[in-house]
Amino acid sequence: MTEYDPAAANARLDEIGMKDTDGDGFRELPSGDKLVLNMNFSTQGIAGQAS
Hints:
Helices cover 20% and strands 0% of the residues. It is mostly helical.
């Protein structure tokens, strides 16, 4: 199991070049683009809930 370690996570993101280049509080990819995650899921006909 992975332990919660924000300092180590931030160090790893720094290593791969993901930095907050525009000052909005979110890291950008090394190319300067925003990281976009598209999530698809199926509810098998049951209404989904997010909390």
